[in-house]
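Re: [ENG-882] Designed sequences occasionally contain unexpected residues at chain ends

Forwarding the minimal case from QA. Structure tokens:
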């Protein structure tokens, strides 16, 4: 696989992330989930790591695009942020 394939795949993942964000904010959760699944598949196929902003705003269990206050709860604890999806999945991220 050459670098042009990787750059095309990276651009595709970024575009799918933007589409998922727009769909989630327009309350089209089914479409947002589809975009998240497609972005993950493209990244896996081309052995790319997902961008941090995509990893932080998606649920690993149900592939929902997380919008704080709408389908996700965000709480801060000692040294980390806890994001809870409506499906019950928790994600923890450190902060300084």
């Amino acid at each position: 696989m050459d670098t042009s394939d990787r750059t095309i795949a990276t651009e595709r993942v970024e575009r799918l992330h933007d589409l998922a964000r727009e769909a989630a904010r327009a309350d089209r959760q089914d479409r947002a989930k589809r975009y998240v699944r497609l972005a993950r598949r493209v990244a896996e196929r081309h052995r790319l790591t997902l961008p941090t902003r995509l990893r932080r705003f998606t649920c690993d269990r149900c592939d929902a695009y997380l919008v704080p206050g709408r389908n996700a709860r965000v709480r801060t604890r000692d040294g980390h942020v806890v994001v809870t999806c409506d499906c019950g999945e928790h994600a923890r991220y450190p902060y300084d």
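QA comment: On inspection the terminal residues look reasonable. The chain has a mean pLDDT of 95. Proposing we downgrade this to a documentation issue.
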